[in-house]
Design brief:
Layout (H helix, E strand, L loop, with lengths): L10 E12 L39 H13 L7 E2 L2 E4 L9 E4 L7 E9 L2 E14 L3 E5 L2 E5 L6 E7 L6 H18 L11 E11 L9 E6 L2 H20 L7 E6 L4 E7 L9 E2 L6 E2 L2 H9 L5 H12 L3 H9 L1 H12 L6 H22 L10 H12 L5 H14 L3 H8 L8 H14 L1 H8 L5 H12 L6 H14 L4
Parallel strand pairs: 11-12
Antiparallel strand pairs: 1-9, 1-10, 2-15, 3-4, 3-14, 5-6, 6-9, 7-8, 10-11, 12-13
Helix pairs in contact: 2-3, 5-6, 6-7, 7-9, 9-10, 12-14, 12-15, 13-14, 14-15
Length: 493
């Protein structure tokens, strides 16, 4: 996708993101209602507190506070010794009380950063703050009326606000992807944008290149994928440049992204902070955050994506690309680790490269069945067992793929499948293989001539014929070498 910096060299795009992540706590932010309302009937996970009844008193969910501090520490934020909750007032129909309990001037953290790699260069993006609030109810719109589901209301919602440090839609997408990785590794959020558990509002403005003051910004909502974030920002940057070039004025407003049309549309004029009439939440005590608790949380942080990438390259000798693949999806990386733990081999780096290669086969089988890696019927120990059999030359690569598919389907260990099916070890007698390759060439003179004439794909047909005659017991790489040698030695028919 073309980035906005290449669209018009006279203007610079400035982007900041406000990311909301639902936290994986068992109960809501200020009451004991369960957050496990997915696929449940509307308005069944509710109580007087999350329904906004008069006279009720909220109670702080300290697990949500801990998750927010964990995230802030992972993003290199500073944690103040004192924080508080505030009332943010606005009259939306999905806000049960007419106000939201959020944080304003003294959030749980501030002044952090996140780094991304863009075209071989490291970019550092500032984090203004990570704070905690409650989610709103959910509206569903129908023909002429709307319905409200209060199940979501009161779910702990963490907001991560970036500095306006991004200069292209691509950079914004990479920031979102990196942030999601961190949240999933921490175990504080599922990070599923398609389900609404991770949501993004983007602030974007354009200014003449070289100008230091910011232009008038618009806020974009309703983006439910990384691709949507990039496409919406791409469209909006072009729209704003076109307005300025035509002599028009950019108005500060909230715009919605329309995925089906690929455009942003105006929704409402943008409110300023004073419109929310913030004031300290009178029903909640201030939060005193001890240094001892912060350091205890810091010590409990798991290995994060960047650290795992570096370790995979150093410990297992993985390439940059393979290390990225094994860390972008935490569950896939965890599976890789379990296969390595079940592998008792001296050459760990050679085994790691084989695991990565064969995991691509496992992922293919999972996609065919619509399963995630966590749902894989093939255990990590089974994949390690398959690779052990290959190392011992108990079967060929072709046979191993067949065994893998059966083990995936049945859950049986590969070693048992090999024994039950009576699979013989690969043919190692070169004289026998040479004789078979000569017979295959003699039986397929036109294909042999095609190969000699430059049609390299013809070789694969001949390899397949040899494998067929040997019932898959020949090694494909040895067969290819022998075929090339014989074809070069013999004259065309």
């Amino acid at each position: 996708m073309t980035t906005s910096t290449s669209i018009d060299t006279d203007y610079e795009v400035v982007i900041g993101l406000e990311v909301h992540a639902q936290l994986l706590t068992k109960s809501k932010m200020f009451c004991s209602c369960s957050t496990g309302y997915a696929n449940e009937a509307p308005n069944t996970h509710v109580c007087p507190i999350c329904m906004g009844m008069p006279g009720v008193l909220p109670v702080i969910n300290m697990e949500a506070v801990k998750y927010t501090i964990m995230t802030a520490l992972a993003l290199h934020c500073s944690i103040p010794p004192y924080s508080k909750f505030d009332r943010k007032n606005y009259p939306y129909p999905d806000l049960m009380k007419g106000y939201q309990i959020s944080q304003y001037d003294i959030p749980l953290s501030q002044n952090g950063y996140l780094t991304i790699d863009l075209h071989g260069q490291t970019h550092r993006i500032g984090i203004t703050r990570v704070h905690l609030e409650e989610d709103t109810a959910r509206l569903t719109h129908h023909d002429g009326y709307s319905l409200i589901d209060i199940n979501r209301s009161g779910t702990p919602l963490m907001e991560i606000v970036s500095e306006p440090d991004m200069r292209s839609p691509e950079e914004a997408r990479l920031y979102m992807q990196k942030l999601r990785e961190i949240l999933v590794y921490l175990g504080v959020s599922s990070g599923r944008m398609e389900e609404g558990s991770l949501r993004c509002d983007a602030n974007i403005s354009v200014r003449p290149r070289g100008q230091s003051t910011l232009g008038v910004k618009t806020e974009i909502k309703n983006m439910n994928s990384f691709r949507s974030v990039e496409r919406a920002l791409e469209y909006e940057s072009q729209r704003q440049v076109a307005v300025l070039r035509s002599g028009g004025t950019i108005h500060q407003e909230t715009r919605g992204w329309v995925e089906t049309k690929g455009i942003t549309v105006g929704q409402r004029s943008k409110e300023h902070a004073h419109d929310y009439r913030y004031f300290p939440e009178p029903d909640l005590p201030p939060l005193i955050i001890s240094r001892e608790w912060v350091e205890e949380i810091r010590a409990q942080l798991p290995e994060l994506p960047d650290a795992r990438r570096l370790r995979y390259k150093a410990e297992y000798g993985l390439s940059e690309q393979d290390a990225n693949v094994m860390t972008e999806d935490k569950a896939l990386g965890d599976y890789f680790e379990q296969v390595m733990a079940a592998s008792h081999v001296s050459d760990r780096k050679a085994r790691a490269k084989k695991v990565v290669s064969w995991l691509s086969e496992v992922v293919r089988l999972l996609k065919d069945k619509g399963l995630s890696i966590q749902e894989s019927p093939l255990s990590p120990a089974a994949l390690a067992n398959l690779l052990d059999l290959l190392d011992k030359e108990r079967m060929t690569g072709t046979q191993a793929k067949e065994v893998l598919e059966e083990a995936f389907t049945t859950g049986e260990m590969p070693e048992k499948i090999v024994t039950r099916r009576g699979i013989k070890p690969p043919i190692s007698d070169l004289d026998t293989l040479e004789r078979i390759t000569e017979e295959v060439i003699a039986s397929n003179p036109k294909v042999a001539d095609d190969y000699r004439g430059g049609k390299t794909n013809a070789l694969q047909f001949l390899v397949g014929q040899v494998m067929k005659r040997t019932r898959g017991q020949a090694k494909a790489d040895i067969v290819q070498t022998l075929l090339r040698k014989k074809l070069d030695e013999t004259q065309p028919s």
